[in-house]
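Hey, weird one. I pasted the Short-chain dehydrogenase/reductase 3 sequence into the form twice and got a warning about non-standard characters only the second time. First submission, copied straight from the form history:
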Amino acid sequence: MAGLTTDEQGIGLKIYEGLVTFMEVLMLFTKMFLSWLHSAYRFIVPPEPKDVKGEIVLITGAGHGMGREMALRFSGLGAVVVCVDINPDGNQGTLELVKANKGIAHRYECDVTDRSAIAAMAARVRREVGDVTILVNNAGIMPCKSLQQHSEKEIRTMFDVNVLAHLWLLQTFLPSMMEKNHGHIVAMSSMAGVVGIRNLVPYCASKFAVRGLMEALHEELREDKKDYSGIKFTVICPYMVDTGLCKNPKIKFPTLMKIVSPQDAVDKIVDAVRRNYPEITVPSSLYYINQYLRVLPRSVPLHLKDFLDSGVEADC
């Protein structure tokens, strides 16, 4: 009788465990389906853009191109802009443009590859402006040549600017955001961080790294015991923007894959930040095209890539 009771208990336990697992899986699929419905709804009805008035927005590479345009756009929305660039003349030019448009801006020269220089700059910003609430890691370099033509110094410098600077700036400015559970991290990646492109091997590696570090950082905060839901993340993946960074673009169909102006690109970037989108491409259609192509066998999208025949030619 004792043995029979033990068997019955074992069977009962297995049935119970099976029911618990079934309910957990059912709950998982319910959550996934509801999240999918919510995403579909938000695709049709985008969230209202948040107000950035009074936010302190630090932008690296603010002395030209999209960095300058973002400084003008955020300041026009009432944000206090902190312009950071290694080039004093370009940085001063951005500062003057912001002030000419009745915006509020501050200028700091800093080599973002130098962690001690970042710490010194950050101390001044906190003392003279306040705690940064929106960090835009925009600074980047893009030498265009085959892998074998890159020197060791060029590759190391590219990763210092395009990747390591992100980490040093995050370690410097993220703690105050975590303390207040309020902030936004914006990282400039690239379509070269989504697909591999000839003559951009080290650059692609650096931009893939940016997407990886942003995803991992989001998960690190999301899974923390404390609530950091007030800190948002946005990764920007532009295709080709007319900033002078891409000197020899190759475009077979200009009407399909046209070079975007910095103004148009920044319109989409600032809108994405204000709506808390986790990732966008510029143009936006590339995001959905890439998501679809990724589920196909690897050889299939290569035919489309060969047909479009777009990319960059070597600088030298």
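That's the output from the first submission. The warning seems to come from a hidden character in my clipboard, not from the data itself. The domain at 50-309 is CATH 3.40.50.720 (Rossmann fold).
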